[in-house]
Give the backbone structure.
Amino acid sequence: MDLLKQKLNEIFKASGLDFSFEVDEGMKKVSVFIHDEGIVRKFFPKLVFELEHIIKVIAKNLKIEKVIVDVNNYKREREGLIVELAKAAARKVLVEQKEIALPAMNAYERRIVHVELATRPDVKTESIGEGTDRHIIVRPLL
């Protein structure tokens, strides 16, 4: 992980961006913070995608597997939103006593929903669909 830190430091310095980053070796997580609000506001989705790709390629070349990348706490905030969506869906399912479909999500986000609602004895979750259309159905347990 030290070599990864060194490579990232070189890349970020060369980019000219005002940045900082932290590497959690135990969690294999890289948290990047871009401090230039103008760039973040204008290019954020692309910036997240590209930084994640670059960092994962570098890590893979260094034989470091499954690195988690979070830019400006986007992933952490997104996880919080998904947990709240799951809880709201469970409440709605119980009130209306009918299943509801959540929006399409990637595998990581679907896992967050399944884990969050697995502790509830009154609802059941199921992933259905294929590819980018895969989503979760939340059903009441009768």
